[in-house]
Automatic annotation (TrEMBL):
Organism: Bradyrhizobium algeriense
Record Pfam families: ACT (PF01842), GlnD_UR_UTase (PF08335), HD (PF01966), NTP_transf_2 (PF01909)
Gene3D superfamilies per record: 3.30.70.260, Beta Polymerase, domain 2 (3.30.460.10), cca-adding enzyme, domain 2 (1.10.3090.10)
Cofactor(s) the record lists: Mg(2+)
A molecular-function term among this protein's GO annotations: [protein-PII] uridylyltransferase activity
Protein name as it appears in the record: Bifunctional uridylyltransferase/uridylyl-removing enzyme
Domain-level remarks: Has four distinct domains: an N-terminal nucleotidyltransferase (NT) domain responsible for UTase activity, a central HD domain that encodes UR activity, and two C-terminal ACT domains that seem to have a role in glutamine sensing.
Regulation: Uridylyltransferase (UTase) activity is inhibited by glutamine, while glutamine activates uridylyl-removing (UR) activity.
The reaction(s) this protein catalyses: [protein-PII]-L-tyrosine + UTP = [protein-PII]-uridylyl-L-tyrosine + diphosphate; [protein-PII]-uridylyl-L-tyrosine + H2O = [protein-PII]-L-tyrosine + UMP + H(+)
Task performed by this protein: Modifies, by uridylylation and deuridylylation, the PII regulatory proteins (GlnB and homologs), in response to the nitrogen status of the cell that GlnD senses through the glutamine level. Under low glutamine levels, catalyzes the conversion of the PII proteins and UTP to PII-UMP and PPi, while under higher glutamine levels, GlnD hydrolyzes PII-UMP to PII and UMP (deuridylylation). Thus, controls uridylylation state and activity of the PII proteins, and plays an important role in the regulation of nitrogen metabolism.
UniProt keyword list: Hydrolase, Magnesium, Multifunctional enzyme, Nucleotidyltransferase, Repeat, Transferase
Domain ACT: 740-822, 851-931
Family statement drawn from the similarity comment of this UniProt entry: Belongs to the GlnD family.
Phylogenetic lineage: Bacteria, Pseudomonadati, Pseudomonadota, Alphaproteobacteria, Hyphomicrobiales
Region: Uridylyltransferase, residue numbers: 1-383
Length: 931
């Protein structure tokens, strides 16, 4: 473990002028001789000013050359020099020892991230003060002088003061301390003392413990990934701690340094761990991630490691990315980021394979659910193939040229791994990546290759195998349209993953739907068992391709259908099945849109949807696809409410497609829903239960999931027994990260607007709403709002305040528009996204109502503004369907004029549309009270 020396950055105008600053410090010491406190204060002010200037210079250079590693080295050199100046000032001017004893020695050492010689602008400084054998008054004074000055400069400092013996003893028992000492770097003081620590650490701690260290570091990495989000394709990644981030590169180097005793990553080439190309990849990944991290710190002014949406666009501009047709500058930047994260994962796999060969790491399997390879069988031939071998439970190549002599092997290797539950040997994956030129038009048209690909897609562990095919580049080369969306990010808050990762995850959810047994997917699983056998492959290829045309100028559903028409015949699909795949892709958003934003109790909604889906079989397939698609968006997006809406839409539409015959007709389904409620809820006498069931309209029984019905029954009864005209129940949906307010009140034309305004006044953002009325004139509304507090108790108090405000408005004690206006004036103006406002007015979606669909950028109070504006336009809101897709709000209102008629006059429709567009486009628009 040799010390790393950080050299001064090149360029006269960029150099931290240590000599000049040291002279200034000496002058201050002379000026304030005998006045220690004054000298310390002046010293801290001087160095802080120099540090600020040096950071500004570093940021200026970073903006010019966009080289993050050099910026991190420049900042580290500046910090090193400051600490050396402080040590010199402390030992020469404050606590000079004219005849130092053997105990009055100290080595000041950088540890941890600072010890690596790279430093982000807002990173902590980790220091170790090494003493010979015990603390002395001199050593304590010098360490305190350095630390207090650093703190006075506003720096965050982690520190420890230990003897060499203490360092060795603690490193043996604490892996964190061991890692910190592994990365120590001498700064100033007594060099022999530091050399003693290095020698003893190598001899007494490192030797013979490589396996222990590797196991601990890889376990630590897994836990870090779990906390940060397991996928490296999360659209708001953590640059430092996320999967594929800087910490993964650090972990690689820690392990390499510990196991192979190297001091620079370049030595890994000499040790045969990486080849020259892989080492260049290591450097390129590190350079890019450091550029992102340094810019992130400079822009935020703090140690921000999460590349959030509001940061991404600015970082993209600072790094020089530009927009191209179909892709924004920020999307191109994030695509580059995810490609780098993938490369970091590949490097990790390569190192782990090397360690495994040396018994420093256990061998993996493709699926942890299946038993490992039998003991004692380290290398043997893969069944049914002479081109591949099993190497310690990984599939590897029997000869280097297996892909050259038969390019189909580029697909076959993945199918054999899937069939035999084998993990992939990094050497094989290296060769696969370097053989991508073999994936040409001849291979793409090869019937055997296409057959193998369809077997991979439709067999167990398809998600895992497809992900490996994607990471090696085979999937994107074999299906070229897929290659265009690899690592493509959609710059919105709705999708949690890159497009390719979303599609691959959807395949995993589709397999879960097919297996059945998961209550999340009851309807889709039941329908999967009933689809025609030949359509099983249809639903799989559709799921893989449904978003494959994202990032094009043409609507991705239409463009994706064209891709399917070209690709499916090659994969062995008939003309009819090819058209079915194309239709499903073209309509893959339709069912979700209708279910979440249309009145499913309106007969016209069902007739229009039936006209689109055309047949029960196509509706079954579309229901399955929609379920997998929503579930694959990200955690918390799929929920019981959406499942119930899809169920309702399916069974409402089925009779329209079968000429009145339905496997479960509407009356039967209402009766079944009521029977389920009776069976699960037996707390009331039968007469009371019958009366309660009669209070709800059929739509309630069809749309609301059972557990919510039970909770609401208890809530309504308790509220009415207490004599409350207005009651609010608070619930918490942890999966979705929302607080639910269930409100029982006398129905009122402005009730929804009042609820929305009260939520806006309390700073609560409504993400969806379920609105029902009872036969006796009561409103039962469930409003989901984004959480503000981590603790349920705090959220409960906020909900109580919202309820009190609703009550005060209904009683005329509070003027809501004034409260909302004050709240709007105080809110921040974070605008990471731009959503073009859209308003559609349609009389074909309902026979009784005019349907107004509004889409625009979500913001606090938007629903209040919309409902108030609609009421001011002399419209009655019969029902509202509120949904939020990330930053985009999509609200649909079923309205009539004051006489209960549809809005037919073109001039009136134009006036409504103009007013709502103006409201959506105005950032600070706050609805005013009605005249």
């Amino acid at each position: 473990m040799d010390s790393i020396v950080i050299e001064a950055p090149s360029g006269e105008d960029e150099r931290f002028d240590t000599a000049r600053i040291t002279a200034a410090v000496d002058a201050l010491a002379e000026k304030h001789a005998g006045r220690e406190d004054v000298f310390r204060s002046a010293l801290a002010q001087l160095l802080k000013a120099e540090m600020i200037a040096a950071r500004a210079t570093a940021q200026g250079v970073l903006l010019r050359d966009r080289h993050g590693r050099r910026c991190a080295e420049r900042l580290c050199f500046m910090q090193d020099e400051i600490i050396r100046i402080l040590y010199s000032a402390a030992t020469r001017h404050l606590y000079r020892s004219h005849v130092p004893s053997g105990a009055e020695r100290m080595a000041v050492v950088a540890t941890g991230g600072y010890g690596r010689g790279l430093m982000a602008p807002e990173s902590d400084i980790d220091l170790l003060f090494i003493l010979p054998y015990k603390q002395t008054a001199w050593g304590e004074q010098v360490a305190e002088a350095i630390l207090y000055c650093l703190w006075d400069m506003g720096l965050k400092v982690g520190h420890a003061t230990r003897s060499v013996d203490e360092c060795i003893r603690q490193a043996r028992g604490d892996m964190t301390i061991r890692t910190a000492i592994l990365e120590t770097r001498f700064l100033t003081g007594d060099q022999p003392l530091y050399d003693e620590l290095v020698a003893r650490f190598d001899k007494d701690v490192v030797q013979g413990t490589a396996s222990e260290f590797v196991t601990a570091k890889l376990a630590e990495r897994e836990e870090r990934h779990r906390r940060a989000g397991q996928s490296r394709y999360l659209v708001e990644p953590n640059v430092k701690d996320g999967k594929g981030g800087l910490r993964d590169l650090h972990t690689l180097f820690w392990i390499a340094k510990y196991v192979y005793r190297v001091r620079e990553t370049g030595e890994l080439v000499e040790r045969g761990v990486f080849d020259a190309q892989e080492y260049r990849t290591f450097r390129r990944c590190a350079d890019f991630l450091w550029s992102v991290r340094c810019n992130l710190h400079f822009v935020s002014g703090r140690a921000e490691e999460r590349l959030s949406f509001d940061m991404q666009r600015e970082i993209a501009v600072r790094l020089g990315y530009t927009s191209h047709p179909g892709m924004q500058d920020v999307e191109r930047f994030m695509k580059h980021y995810f490609l780098v994260a993938k490369d970091v994962g590949d490097l990790t796999a390569i190192l782990c394979a090397k360690l495994e060969e040396e018994q420093a790491k256990p061998a993996p399997v493709l699926s942890r659910m299946v038993a490992r390879l039998r003991p004692g069988t380290k290398r043997r031939r893969v069944p049914d193939s002479d081109d591949f071998i099993i190497d310690n439970n990984r599939i590897n190549l029997a000869a280097p040229d297996v892909f050259k002599h038969d390019p189909v092997n580029l697909i076959r290797i993945f199918r054999l791994a899937q069939t035999n539950n084998l993990a992939f040997h990094p050497d094989a994956m290296r060769t696969v990546t370097r053989s991508l030129k073999q994936v040409n038009s001849q291979l793409r048209e090869n019937p055997e290759a296409n057959r193998l690909f369809m077997e991979i897609l439709t067999s167990d562990n398809a998600e895992t195998v497809l992900r490996r095919m994607n990471e090696t580049g085979v999937l994107g080369h074999f299906i070229r349209a897929f290659g265009k969306i690899v690592s493509m990010m959609q710059f919105n808050m709705y999708h949690h993953y890159t497009v390719d990762e979303h599609l691959i995850r959807c395949i995993g959810h589709l397999q879960e739907i097919e297996r059945g047994g998961n209550d999340e997917f009851t309807v889709a699983s039941d329908l999967f068992r009933k689809i025609q056998p030949e359509h099983r492959a249809v639903i799989y290829i559709t799921t893989l391709l449904h978003d494959v045309a994202k990032g094009r100028l043409e609507d991705h559903s239409i463009a994706g259908a064209k891709v399917a028409r070209r690709l499916c015949p090659r994969l062995g699909f008939s003309t009819a099945d090819t058209e079915l795949v194309a239709w499903l892709i073209e309509e893959h958003l339709t069912m979700s849109t209708v279910a979440q934003s249309r009145d499913l109790s309106d007969r016209k909604t069902i007739e229009n949807f039936a006209a689109v889906v055309q047949s029960v079989e196509q509706m079954k397939l579309l229901t399955i696809l929609t379920t997998a698609d929503i579930r694959g968006v990200g955690p918390g997006v799929w929920n019981g409410w959406k499942a119930q809406l899809l169920r309702t839409l399916y069974y409402e539409t089925e009779p329209a497609l079968t000429g009145g015959f339905s496997e479960v007709n509407r009356a039967q389904r209402i009766a079944v829903a009521q029977s389920e409620f009776r069976a699960a809820f037996n707390e009331w006498p039968e007469a009371e239960l019958n009366a309660y069931i009669g209070r709800h309209y059929p739509a309630y029984w069809l749309k609301v999931e059972l557990q919510r019905k039970i909770r609401q029954a208890r809530f309504i009864r308790a509220s009415e027994q207490a004599g409350h005209q207005l009651a609010i129940n608070v619930g918490f949906d942890e999966a979705r990260g929302v607080t639910e307010l269930t409100i029982l009140a006398t129905d009122h034309p402005w009730l929804l607007s009042i609820i929305a305004g009260a939520c806006a006044s309390a700073g609560a953002n409504i993400v969806d709403a379920q609105i029902y009325t009872t036969t006796d004139g009561r409103a039962l509304d469930t409003i989901a709002i984004s959480r503000e507090y981590d603790r349920d108790e705090d959220e409960g108090r906020r909900a109580t305040r919202i309820g009190e405000m609703i009550e005060q408005v209904l009683e005329g004690k509070l003027r809501l528009p004034e409260v909302v206006a004050r709240k709007a004036a105080n809110r921040g103006k974070v605008r990471a996204f731009v959503v073009e406002p859209e308003v559609t007015i349609n009389n074909q979606w309902s026979d009784r109502y005019t349907v107004i669909e509004v889409s625009g950028l979500d913001r606090p109070g938007l629903l209040y503004q919309l409902t108030t504006a609609i009421s001011k336009l002399n419209l009655n809101i019969a029902s509202a369907h509120v949904a939020t897709f990330g930053e985009r709000a999509r609200d649909v209102f079923y309205v009539t004029d004051l006489l209960g008629a549809q809005i037919n006059a073109p001039t009136r429709q134009a006036a409504i549309k103009s007013a709502l567009i103006h409201l959506l486009a105005s950032e600070d628009n706050v609805a005013q009270p009605a005249a």
